[in-house]
Amino acid sequence: MRSRDQIVVAWARAAAAAVALALLVAGGVARSEADEDDTAPPVSAPPRVAVVNGETVVTFDRATLARSGIEAEALAAQSHQAETAAYGVVLDLTELADARGTIVAAAARVDKARVLLVASRAEFERVRTLHADDRNASDKALEEATARWRGDEADSRGANAALAAQTAAARQRWGAVVSGWLERGSSELEALLAQRLRLVQITLPPGTALPTAPATAIVRAGGDAVSARLVSPAPRTDPQIQGASYYYAAPAAPGLLPGAVVEAFLPAGPAVKGVTVPAAAVVWWQGRAWVYLEEAPGRFVRRAVTTDAPVPGGWFVTAGVAAGSRVVVRGAQMLLSEEGRAAIQGSEG
């Protein structure tokens, strides 16, 4: 009986060893196949970024394009007059506000003196008539009426002289147009003092002359460009620039704060044709401005543009982007990031 049990145990051990050997072999084969799979070249999707004819092109398939939210718009042909670059400063109008208060007060004194003079002159005439009529008014009453009239007359002359002096000082400081606003009042003056408008003094470079002061100018501060309207020639120049100087009124903008130095562009030549590239379309890379043009649905080419002709809403461009081109106005930064991601993957590969 014991020998039979020993035979059964031996047989069981042999069966277990056979099973273990089979599992070991199967595992080796699986590992070998896995190793072979690891060493096999991966299957990759076509690259999204490529260089074609020297320009970088980013391509999205339909699904990716739909998820991206990229928007492009066609640019219309426009004309733009050649410009002269200048510099300017946004003026602090505290002195202008003080001048207005001084002139208003002086004008009020003139009005008051005039009223008193009219009244005292009438009283003098009445008393003089009575005095001449059998002295129905005493000599003393006539003397008092005469003194009051002559005093009011002197006060009136003094008030008028003070107003004239204040007006002349304002004209010397601000020029005829702005001083006229101070004298008579105007909606432009109210807008300036309420800070809805900014008064910008634009000065041309030394040696630069214009036949007439342009009616408009483009003023840029902090990247924002706004259109400014001519007020008048300035009665004094900027001591640091020493060129012909003009006052322009510009709508209030975040960068146009009193004391801010601004760039200005004044029309000074023939009109040229081009397009306005929206500010939202421009991305900056390696110190240059770029836009993405949609050559076909899902195909975008990056192209450099110039930013030396700012206009409200963007920049006027005469080369590189033609009228009718579709420029990306939403998602340009995403396309630039896609280029960066491709460059990193390429360096790792």
Quick overview of this protein structure:
The chain is an alpha+beta fold and 349 residues long. 44% of the residues lie in helices and 30% in strands. It folds into three domains: 49-81 and 273-348, Beta Barrel (conserved putative lor/sdh protein from methanococcus maripaludis s2 fold), CATH 2.40.420; 85-91 and 195-269, Beta Barrel (Elongation Factor Tu (Ef-tu), domain 3), CATH 2.40.30; 97-191.
Kindly describe this structure.
There is one protein chain. The protein folds into three domains: 49-81 and 273-348, Beta Barrel (conserved putative lor/sdh protein from methanococcus maripaludis s2 fold); 85-91 and 195-269, Elongation Factor Tu (Ef-tu), domain 3, CATH 2.40.30; 97-191. It has a six-stranded antiparallel beta barrel with strand order 4-5-8-7-6-9. Strands 1-2-12-11-10 form a five-stranded antiparallel β-sheet, covered by helices on one side. The two termini are 71 Å apart. The protein has helices spanning 2-39, 62-68, 94-132, 139-184, 187-193, 332-348, and strands spanning 49-52, 55-59, 71-74, 78-90, 197-203, 216-221, 224-233, 245-251, 261-278, 283-285, 288-296, 299-305, 310-311, 314-317, 326-330. The chain contains six helices and 15 strands.
